[in-house]
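Please study the protein below:
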Amino acid sequence: MAIDRRLLDILCCPTSKVPLDLLGKDDLGKLNAAIDAGAVMFIDQEPVSARASGALITKDRRSLYLIEQDIPVLLPERAIAVNTLADF
């Protein structure tokens, strides 16, 4: 997953305004394992059904945003609360 560093430097969570970072490989594996187990929901309570190829995480590690087809989906209703994930 490649996001231009200049773009990453200006991206932030749409609700909290906390800056974002790319989710690391190990954490992406944990996220996908939780998705496979059916244990991941967006903030709007819709289940996440497809494995993530990448994600952004707030620097305070409270919210995740999936990257779909190399485009970060920064919609408030499409956030994933990290505290709902077991291994984070």
Notes: The first helix runs from residue 5 to 10.
